[in-house]
Records
---
Amino acid sequence: MKRLLTLAVAMATLAGCAQTYQPVVDTKGHDSARYQQDLFECRQYAEQVSPAGDAAVGGLGGAAAGAALGAITGALVGGVGAGEAAAVGAATGGAVGVGAGAYSGVNEQQRIIDNCMRGRGYNVLN
């Protein structure tokens, strides 16, 4: 239950990443109200990418790979049952997969915002 609660909090945190990302933009020669409106609209486009969804997919793939690797390692090394090793591998692989998937999703959102702002004529510096 504790793991599910932690995962739910992490997913909720990821869901708002595009709304807080602030690209470094040279706004010289641009109206500040227009800039804020453009940034808002670009963030809305970025919300179409789901870091939480990428995290979940990464977690499932990581858990499956970790379970398989853990079972094989446990069977080869001995001393640890294949089932126990698979469980540890699944937990570890799942955690790594969630992190990698979330990172990928957040980067994609930031890339969308940067590209959108460039497309609107802003010089994005980061």
---
Amino acid sequence: MYIPSQFEESRVEVLHQLIRSHSLGILVTFSTSGMEANHIPFHLTPEPTPFGTLQGHMARANPAWQNINQKIESLVVNIIKRFT
């Protein structure tokens, strides 16, 4: 992903705080019918260092959990709420 240098943030502690402050994310997975996106809550633990582990919660009634496959990459997009 292209990130202009003025918007780049590489400090892990700052990125971790951002994730903790905005824990709702979009989980993008691949199914037999194509890409699927689901809004789910995430929790970040700091281990293993340096990047930690991102854990999500999906209801068993949501069929998207069946699309998670350790051999196929998934994508999590952090949602930042901004109110004016």
